[in-house]
Amino acid sequence: MSSDAIIRISGLSKDYQTAAGAVPALENISLSISPGEFVAVMGPSGSGKSTFMNLLGCLDIPTGGSYFLNGTDVRTLDKDQLARLRNSVIGFVFQGFNLLPRASLLDNVALPLVYAGVGRSERIRRAQEMLDKVGLGKFSTSLPSRISGGQQQRVAIARALINHPRLVLADEPTGNLDTRTSQEIMSLFTALNRDEGITVVLVTHEADIATYANRLVRFVDGHLAHDGAVDHELLGAHA
Amino acid sequence: MISPMLSEAWSAMSANRLRTFLTMLGMMIGVGAVILMLAIGQGAQYLVDKSISSMGSNLFIILSGSSTSGGLRMGGGASPTLTVADAQAIAELPSVAAVAPSASGTAQMVYGPNNWSTQVIGTLPSYLEVRDWELAAGYPFTDSDVRSATRVALLGQTVVKNLFGDEDPVGKTIRIKQSPYQVVGVLAMKGQSLDGRDQDDSVLIPVTTAQRKLFGTQFQGSVRMIMAQAASADAMPAAERAINQLLRQRHRIKEGAESDFTVRNLTALANTAAETTRVMSLMLGAIASISLLVGGIGIMNIMLVSVTERTREIGIRVAIGARQRDILLQFLLEAIIISIVGCLVGVGLGIGGAVLVNKITETAVVITLSSVIMAFMVAAAVGVFFGFYPARKAARLEPIEALRYQ
C-alpha cells in the first residue's frame, strides 16, 4: 500500500438494516488504488459491487473500517464536506447517463461548476471546451433528448471531467449502449487514463469491457474474491 | 449562485406551465380578495369617519320633554321644557366648551323665481363652533343679531344651489314664509349625516328670530333641543353629569323624580358605529385571508409533487456536489417566485376589482399603500412558509435513494 494512494480502504464493511436484522453487503474489504490506475469492478448482482461504488463515491457511509479518499478520512466529514469532496475530487458517470432533461447540454456539463462557485462566463467557457473535447461542441444548446445514447454518455463524461477530478467513477457506463458505441466510450476512458493520468474505477459485467482496464477487482457475496491483473482466463470462465 | 438558480426555477416552472399557472392562480385570488375586501372595508370606514367628523366632536344633544308624563310615556321633545336660558347656564359649566340651543322647523323660502322647502334652525352663533362648521362665504350672524332678533340667514350649500344656482347669495334677500331675510353667509359643504340626511339642506337664523318671528312658540324662549360640546373627550362623563345636575336643579326636579329632559351622548353613538365598521372591515380582511392561506397550501401541495417528481434530478445534483442548502434554496426560490408573481397579479386584480365595485355599485372603496404592502408581505411569507417544508424534504433526500428513484 503506497501512502500517496488516491483510495485507501481497510477493513471496510457495510450493513443494511432490514426487518430481519442487519444484512451485511460488504465485509472486511481492504484495498488501495494508486493514481493513474484503471480498475474494473466485476461480480454477479448482489455481490456488493454497487454498494462498493456508492461508498467510493461518498454517496453512502460505511458502517465499519476506514476509507481515505485523496488523503482525507471520509468518515470524519459531514454531509456538506462530502458534497464538496464529490464536487472537487470525483467525477461520476452513470449507466442511465443521468443528464438533467430540461437543461441544455452546455448547462448540464457546467452544473458541477455551479456548485463549485465558478462564475458564469468561466462556466460557459469551460463547458464549451469540454463539449468540444468529447466531439459535441456544436450541440451545446440542444436538450439531452435530441441526441443519441452514446452522445448522452459523452456529455455525462464531459460533465464528470469539467471540474478536473482525480478520480472518475463509472457505474456500467456502457450498459445501455450497443457494442460499437461502447467501444467508442471505452476508448474515451482509456485516453483519459493514459493521457491525463486520471484514475478510473469502472463497474461492468461485460468481460470485453473489463479488458480495457489494467486491474480487476471481483466481488462475490460481499467479499473480495479477486484483486490483481486482468486475468483473461478468469474473465472467460465467468463471462 | 442565485442567477443559475433563478434560471433553473424558471425552467422548472415553464416545464409545467398549466400547473404553475394554477398554483399562482390560488395566490392571485387570495391576494386579490384580501385587497378588494380591505378596500371595501376601509371605504365603509372612511364614510363613517367622515360623517362623524361632520357631526362635530365630543357632542351631547339635550332633548326637552320628559320620557313619561303621568302614565303616558312621551317621546323626547314632547313638551317644551328647555330654554335659551338653560343653554346659557350650561355654557357656564367648566367641562363644557360650547353650547347651541336650536329651535327648528320646516319653512318654504323664495328667491326670485325659485322656491325651496327646507329645515330652518334657530340658534346662536356658537352653533358653528359646536358643529365644527366653517363658512364658505360671508360672515356668521352675531350675538347682537340674536339680541335684536334680526332677519338674517346662513344658507347651506344645497339651499344655495336650489335657490341661487350659480349666483352669489351673500348680501341678497330671500323670503322665508313671506318675510325678507338677508343672506349674510354661506355654510361650507358638510355632506351626509350618519343617518343619511343631507346636512347641507338647512338654513341657520338667530334663535330669537325663529322663536318670535318665524315659528312662534307657546312658551317664551323655549327650544326643542340644546347641543353641547364637552371641553375634551376625557371631560365627557363629567360634562354629562354636570349637565344633568344643573338642569334638574334649574327645573326644580325632586330627588328620585324623573328628569323632564334627556341627555344623549352623540359621540358615543358615533364611536359605536365606527367600531362596528372597523370590526366589519377586519372580518372581511380575515375571511379573505383564508383564501390566501388556501393559496399557500396549494403552493405546498404542488411543491411536494414537484419534489417527488424530481427526486432523481435531486440525486444527480447531490452526487455532482450540491450541498443541502443548494437544494433547499432551489426549491424555496421556486415557491417564493410563484407566490410573489401570483401576488403581483393579485394586487392588480384586487385594485381592478375595487375600481369595478366602485363603478358598478358606487360603494366607496379606499385602497391604501399599507394594505397593498401588507398583502405583498403576507404573500412572500406564505411562499417561504409553505415552500420550506417541501424544500427541506428535497434537501434531506439520501443521494443513493434519490439516484435509485425511477
Detailed description of the structure:
The complex is a heterodimer of chains A (239) and B (406). Helix content of chain A is 36%, strand content 27%. Chain A is an alpha/beta fold. The relative contact order of chain A is 0.18. Chain B is an alpha+beta fold. Chain B has 2 domains: 2-52 and 272-404, no CATH class; 80-259, no CATH class. In chain B, strand 9 and strand 10 form a beta hairpin. In chain B, helix 1 (2-15) packs across helix 11, helix 2 packs antiparallel against helix 12 and helix 11 (324-361) packs antiparallel against helix 12 (369-395). At the A-B interface, helix 2 and helix 3 of A face helix 1, helix 10, helix 11 and helix 13 of B.
Put simply, the count of helices of chain B is 13
Give the radius of gyration of chain A: 18 Å
Percent range of helical residues of chain A: 25-40%
The pLDDT mean of chain B sits at 86
Main beta-sheet annotation of chain A: 6 strands, mixed
Largest β sheet strand count, sense and barrel closure of chain B: 6 strands, mixed, barrel
What is the CA–CA distance across the termini of chain B?
Answer: 28 Å
Bin the strand percentage of chain B: 15-25%
Unreliable runs of chain A, pLDDT <50, ≥5 residues? none
Q: Using the CA coordinates, give the radius of gyration of chain B.
A: 33 Å
Overall pLDDT metric of chain A: 90
Query: Which parts of chain B are unreliable, with pLDDT below 50 for 5 consecutive residues or more?
Result: none
Number of discrete domains of chain B: 2
Classify the helix fraction of chain B into a percent range. 55-70%
| Structural class assignment of chain A | alpha/beta
Key terms:
heterodimer, A: 239 residues, alpha/beta, Rossmann fold, 4-stranded antiparallel beta sheet, 10 strands, globular, B: 406 residues, alpha+beta, 2 domains, 6-stranded mixed β-barrel, two-stranded antiparallel ribbon, 56% helix, 19% strand, elongated
